[in-house]
Specification:
Shape: elongated
Strand order of the largest sheet: 2-3-6-4-5
Order of helices and strands: EEEHEEHEHEEHEEHE
Number of domains: 2
Helix content: 25-40%
Strand content: 35-45%
Structural class: alpha+beta
CATH topology of the largest domain: Ribosomal Protein S5, domain 2
Distance between the termini: 21 Å
Low-confidence stretches: none
CATH architecture of the largest domain: 2-Layer Sandwich
Number of helices: 5
Number of strands: 11
CATH superfamily of the largest domain: Impact, N-terminal domain
Largest sheet: 5 strands, antiparallel
């Protein structure tokens, strides 16, 4: 059975712009992988664009989009954050934060106009982004005695596991990450190597 163990995100940062009736909507898309980074970026944007009327945003976190949130920052409910989030989802992305900064041009756009503006600014930023596909990796720890280290390392290479940390004391302790769909076959192969202990 093939598990769905990949997701799409962006690399780095990209920018977009939308103008309507004198209002400017500056959009910024960021690659993010946890809520702390999201909070720090939002705080930074609010400081940097303290003279803007609104700093709206949406984000999606986790390979299965386990966490999503949209913020209107004073715009009418559902006219800013939700259209931004809609673009993240329609681009099929996750681990992404999109911030749209609005400078008011003096003419009200109405709720329909706002939805179009925030959606268009977000879409522009995301269409400029470099989209990458990543694998969902599962970390686990392998304890192995020295005589079996070469065999273990060969198996890890075969299943394309990355070694995050290694400690050599009485025996070897390897912290590794492997693609979700390879976890079981690798575990089975490693369990055949004598004196090997696995911890999830």
């Amino acid at each position: 059975m093939m598990l769905n163990d990949t997701y799409k995100t962006i690399e780095g940062t990209s920018e977009g712009l939308y103008k309507e009736k004198g209002s400017k909507f500056l959009a910024f898309a960021h690659s993010v992988d946890n809520i702390e980074v999201v909070k720090a970026l939002l705080e930074d944007y609010r400081k940097r664009y303290h003279d803007a009327r609104h700093v709206c945003y949406a984000y999606s976190l986790g390979p299965e989009r386990e966490e999503t949130k949209a913020g209107d920052d004073g715009e009418p409910n559902g006219t800013a954050g939700r259209p931004i989030l809609g673009q993240i989802l329609s681009f099929e992305l996750t681990n992404v934060l999109v911030v749209v900064v609005r400078y008011f041009g003096g003419i009200l756009l109405g709720t329909g106009g706002l939805v179009v503006a925030y959606k268009s600014a977000a879409a522009d930023a995301l269409s400029q982004a470099v989209v990458v596909e990543k694998t969902v990796d599962v970390p686990f720890t392998v304890h192995v005695e020295y005589p079996y280290l070469d065999t273990t390392l060969r198996l890890l290479r075969k299943w394309e596991a990355s070694i995050l940390e290694q400690t050599f004391e009485l025996d070897c302790l390897l912290k590794v990450a492997v693609r979700k769909q390879s976890v079981e076959p690798l575990r089975e192969a490693l369990e055949k190597v004598e004196t090997l202990h696995l911890e999830a």
